[in-house]
Design goal:
alpha/beta; Rossmann fold
């Protein structure tokens, strides 16, 4: 079989181009239903496309929703006050962004004390990379408790295959926040895949301060170490800290001439990372909205709603970065990829 044919089959197996979706609007449509639902939305770093997709879905389905939005601003010390407000308002549903907030508010399968966590109100989590690894659920069929959710993470084996299809590498650099559990789990998954795919993982964790928080003033040496280690490709995990600082980090990596592969769309669209196999946040948010509809309208218990990911992913290439670095993906990939031109 010709090499190009093998490559095309590989890309088809890991890449799906998502259908374009409507722009976000806060306006609610005319509700065909008389019921109005209170939906408490807990954010980690402001409204993302995931929340836009979530709220748009409920609006488009004529599900009357009163959104109570609270933003932690990447500060976990705000969580107790938000939890008190949830208990006081008793909403019909709680939506939570990310692994950190979900574990802080809902607890884990081994620690779900109702005096410490919200257990009596249905919860939907979103943008959680590894719900099982984070001990939020025992399996993806049922949480066994009053929550369900959606994962945005493309399986690591599929990401590795995608990386291998566009770039030959033997040393993969990974920069991550060691305090973000989903990032640590992702690094472990990459290391598990390394032997069978003939590469080595070079870690570069973000330093922590005396309070075990990542240091915001990032030393550029944390990225430049990849040059001295002979890294061929740098991987950016689904990590809120890395995403928030991606412009600074990716700029240094790009200047070093090392291509980047991102697990999320933000660094590619907003910080000129080169490429990535991702689940679009907006579409993941709409999927979470579908699960909210099952809870609010169909009256399903969250434990009876499976935890899922999207079935199709987007391979995104930032062509502006590709031209600047002189890195051009194979023609076969461009036939399936979503190309960002500037």
């Amino acid at each position: 079989m010709k090499k190009q044919t093998i490559l095309i089959i590989l890309i088809i197996s890991v890449v799906g181009i998502l259908i374009s979706v409507p722009l976000f609007t806060y306006a609610q449509s005319n509700n065909a239903q008389s019921k109005q639902y209170d939906v408490f939305v807990v954010l980690w770093r402001g409204i993302t496309d995931a929340e836009k997709g979530f709220m748009d879905y409920l609006s488009q389905r004529n599900i009357g929703a009163n959104f109570i939005i609270r933003d932690c601003g990447k500060d976990v010390t705000r969580v107790p006050g938000i939890m008190k407000e949830i208990r006081d308002t008793k909403p019909d549903l709680v939506y939570i962004f990310g692994t950190t907030l979900t574990t802080k508010i809902a607890g884990t399968i081994t620690d779900g004390n109702p005096d410490q966590f919200i257990t009596d109100i249905p919860i939907i989590f979103n943008i959680v990379a590894d719900p099982i690894g984070a001990s939020l659920v025992p399996n993806l069929v049922t949480s066994g408790r009053n929550l369900t959710g959606v994962s945005h993470m493309v399986p690591v084996p599929a990401q590795v295959r995608a990386m291998k299809s566009v770039a030959e590498f033997t040393r993969l650099g990974v920069i991550f926040n060691p305090q973000e559990k989903n990032s640590v789990l992702c690094v472990k998954a990459l290391e598990d895949a390394a032997d069978s795919h003939n590469f080595q993982v070079i870690r570069s964790p973000i330093p922590l301060d005396e309070n075990r928080k990542p240091i915001e003033d990032i030393n550029p040496d944390i990225v430049k170490i990849f040059v001295s280690e002979g890294v061929d490709l740098v991987y950016l995990p689904s990590d809120s800290f890395i995403i928030s600082h991606s412009k600074y980090l990716v700029n240094i990596i790009n200047e070093s001439g090392i291509p980047t592969f991102s697990a999320t769309e933000g660094p590619i669209l907003n910080a000129d990372a080169l490429m990535g196999l991702v689940s679009r946040y907006y579409n993941v948010g709409q999927f979470a909205g579908y699960k909210a509809e099952q809870i609010l309208v169909s009256r399903k218990h969250p434990k009876n709603i499976p935890i899922e990911t999207l079935k199709r992913f987007s391979f995104i290439i930032n062509m502006k970065t590709a031209r600047k670095m002189g890195f051009y993906p194979p023609i076969a990939i461009l036939k399936f990829a979503e190309v960002i031109t500037g």
